[in-house]
Amino acid sequence: MKFSLVMATLGRSIEIERLFESLVAQHYQNFELLVIDQNEDDRVSRLVEAFKDRLEIIYLRSEKGLSRARNVGLKHVSGDVVCFPDDDCWYRPDTLEFVAEQFRRDPELRGVTGCSVDADGVPSQGRWATEALAVNRYNIWTCATSYTIFLHVEAVRQAGGFDEQLGVGSGSRWGAGEEVNYLLGVVGAGMPVRYQPELRIHHPEPLMVMDERAFQRARLYNRGFGRVLGLNRYPAYFVLYLVARSAAGCVVSLLKADPKRARYYWIAASQRLLGWAD
Predict the structure, then answer these.
(1) CA distances from 154 to 72, 108, 261 (A)
(2) Residue 108: CB partners within 8 Å, gap ≥ 6?
(3) Where are the CATH 3.90.550.10 domain residues in the chain?
(4) Each residue of 31-60: pLDDT tens digit?
């Protein structure tokens, strides 16, 4: 079983080196790494050159946009299992070994997902389910993010390409949600996907500081999530439930005298609703 790791990158180098080192340390070494570079300089190509004797790397270039870059990478994969590491995430030494074992145990399985944790093992990037689940269109929101998704190549063929109007760098108002939209295509086709909370991928928590950058991220990301809810025809009650959770976070933050976090939650609630209506 061979893995194809599709990694798009823009504006980073130190973080990429950390990911590369974590890949060198993998117990399971049957994989290729597809690096899709969107930088105008040579920061990434220099790293690729430095690691070319320790990793099987396919170096590609693309126009800006996370979904565009991933679609370029998907045209070149040769593995049996495809995943999408962020350029600032990193793997534990047994990550690929664990995923390979899940597919070996259940030949019918077409996807495995895990959760995100920071360097200290604390959950990052949102809420996560705490028990193993069969992924469906309602629990998917707490069972997957791009770099915790591992798909059998048959599921990748079923999903096709990423929607290039969604995601970071798309140029649209929908700055996230492309990976959930992609995975919904797999789940909607009846292909079994399993969430395993023991599968933990490291990623920094982006919301340590509530500043204008965080607020802009909230606008783009939650508008994108709302758009995915609309594209996939989620019922109004479920959309309102997700909006209400963020609105409740706003109220709780105000009660705790944390106006910046309250503002963040209000932006999240309003943008989810607007994205659904787009």
Answers:
(1) 18, 11, 42
(2) 192
(3) 3-202
(4) 999 999 999 999 999 999 999 999 999 999
Q: What is the CATH number of domain 3-202?
A: 3.90.550.10
- Nearest-CA neighbor of 224 among 184, 150, 170? 170
Phi-psi region of 169 (alpha: psi -120 to 50; beta: other; left: phi over 0): left
> What residues pair up with 201 in beta bridges, in sequence order?
116
- Residue 58, exposed/middle/buried by CB under 10 A (0-12, 13-18, 19+)? middle
Please name the amino acid found at residue 27: H
Q: Cα angle vertex 117, ends 11, 147, to 5°?
A: 50
Instruction: Give pLDDT tens digits for 199-229.
Output: 999 999 987 788 999 999 999 999 999 999 9
H helix or E strand, kind and range, residue 8: strand 3-9
* Tokens 């990793």 sit on residue: 55
Closest CA to 102 of 128, 86, 83, 121: 83
Largest Cα separation within the chain, whole Å, is 55
Closest by Cα among 177, 176, 184, 132 to 155: 184
The pTM for the full model equals: 0.96
Look-up of token digits 């690096």: 35
